[in-house]
Every structure is written in structure tokens, then in C-alpha cells.
Amino acid sequence: MMVRLGVFILWLIHLLPFRVIVALGNGLGVILHAVGKERREVAHTNLKLCFPQMAEAERDKLVRAHFRMFARGLLERTVLWWGSAQRIRKLIRVEGVEHFEPIKHKSSILLTPHFVGMDVGGQWIAQETDTVCMYAKQKNVYLTKLLKDKRARFRNQKLYSRQEGLRPILKGMKEGHPFIYPPDQDQGIKDGAFIPFFGVPAATMTSLPRIAKMTGAVVVPSITRTLPGGQGYVLTFYPAWENYPSGDDVADARRMNEFIEQRILEMPEQYFWLHKRFKTRPEGEPPLYPD
After folding, report:
1. pTM
2. Which residues make Cβ contacts (< 8 Å) with residue 69, sequence separation at least 6?
3. Is residue 144 part of a domain?
4. 3-state DSSP call for residue 128?
5. Rounded average pLDDT over 60-86
């Protein structure tokens, strides 16, 4: 019941002017930072690891800014879920569309790391072409269905749970659909390797080069920047990676991490620092996050 009430409140929020939603998101971020001790500590730990030379005051400022951006993403998502296609498109400026056009109806991989605006870019892409992507099941069945339905509200988006594995993804790609792939969370080491991320060994999936090899897909990175105030977003497509895959999965995964690092340095407050990126540790090394 509480979940449905929360969804109803979110639906009401989408009716507000975008600038008001942004202001509410900033305010919510201040509250979440104050009450979210566990995630606040996760963010501080991540930043200490990735930017060891950063002063404590600067790190605290960055964590506060990230909470505001994170909360903005939560509330602004209401426009993605219930707003018209026209309203969504008015909020998004697209750069590098010439890199997207040649592959939007082909077997390709849209590399989409976890920045707060990630879903915004995904909804613009979903209005342009059919895609395949993965989603994480939630503990609440109603919420899982809602998230899945809202992400697939335009055209014919095919979403598969992580539990279904890669087989349906590969099938969809072979039918000519781009794969929206967020590769940068800790999924363990079973299908990956420890690859440096800002110099710290991070459990990194090596699926990207393997999928590219199996399907012949090109990799086109896609990053969405959230702009200040009510200015909206900038979705940027980057040139398709050349000589990828190289035949060395570890080197290819390192190339992916380096690309993500470069984008983080451009807008550090917008990367998803609340995730326990370094939860999986090399054998014998102690955990980095509190129990």
C-alpha cells in the first residue's frame, strides 16, 4: 500500500513545471544526505579510494552535490515515466547524433555508464529505435513491473532480467536491435576480472568485448549530462570505438574503465557514487565498506 501511495505522489510531481521538480529534487537531496548515513559513508569511501589527494572538505562538498543530483534524478524520472514524448524531447539536447544514426537499427552496443541522467538518454533513444536491455528485479513485484513498463513505454523495447542471462540479449541484437549496456557496477568476478578503476582493483565485467565479438557489434558510448536548474540535459554520442574488441578481454575492459574515468572527471558529482563499486575484493584483501 505504501509503495502505491509513493507512486501516486510521484505521478502528481510529474504534473509540476520542470524547474519546480528540479527544486524539489535539490531539497530532497539535502534530506537524503542528512538521513542516509550508510549511503553517505559508501560515497565517502568511494571518493577516498578514487581521489585520495582530495581534501576532506572538498570530498564532503562533492558528496552533498551528488546527493542533490541523485535525488533530482529520482524526481525528474517522473517526467520520463508519465510525461509526453514531446515534453521529454524538449528537455534534451543531443550531440554527436551522427554517431548514433548509422547504428540505431543494427546490432550495436550503446555503452551507457551509471550517471544520474542515464535513464533520460535511454528514453530519448527509445523514441528513436527499438532496443534490448537488462533490468534488475526489485523486491516488490508491483515496483518491478512499474519500472519495466515505464522503461518500455515507447516503441518496442525488449527488457530482460539479469537472471535470464545474455541469450535473449544476443537474440535481440541479431535481429538488429541496439543493446543499451550499463557495464560499471560490481557484479562479482565470475564473468570478469579485477581491472583498475582510478587505480583501485574493481570487479569489472569483461562481457563488452565478448558480446561485441559474438555479434560483430560496434560500441558507441552514450553519456547524458544533467544541466543546472531547469535547463534539462545533454545526451552525447561518441564515435564508435575502433579496433574493438582487440582480442584481449582484460585490455578491452581497461579501455572501457578509462573511458568512464574520463567522463567522471568532467562531471564527478553526477556519477553514481552510492553504489559499492569495490565490494568484491581480491583474495585476501579486507572489505572496504562497513558491514
Report:
1. 0.94
2. 29, 116, 226, 269, 270
3. yes
4. helix
5. 96
- 28 in any annotated domain: yes
282 lies in a domain? no
105 φ, ψ (degrees, to nearest 5): -120, 25
Contact between residue 103 and residue 220 where contact means Cβ atoms under 8 Å apart: yes
Q: What is the Cα–Cα distance from 205 to 267, expressed in whole angstroms?
A: 23
Name the residue among 115, 264, 249 with its Cα closest to residue 195. Answer: 249
Bridge partners of 194?
A: 203
Asked if residue 285 belongs to a domain, the reply is: no
Domain limits at 241?
2-270
Burial of 200 (0-12, 13-18, 19+ CB in 10 A): middle
What pLDDT, in 10s, does the model give residues 6-63?
Answer: 889 999 999 999 999 999 999 999 999 999 999 999 999 999 999 999 999 999 999 9
Domain tally for the chain? 1
State pLDDT tens for residues 239-283: 999 999 999 999 999 999 999 999 999 999 999 999 999 999 999
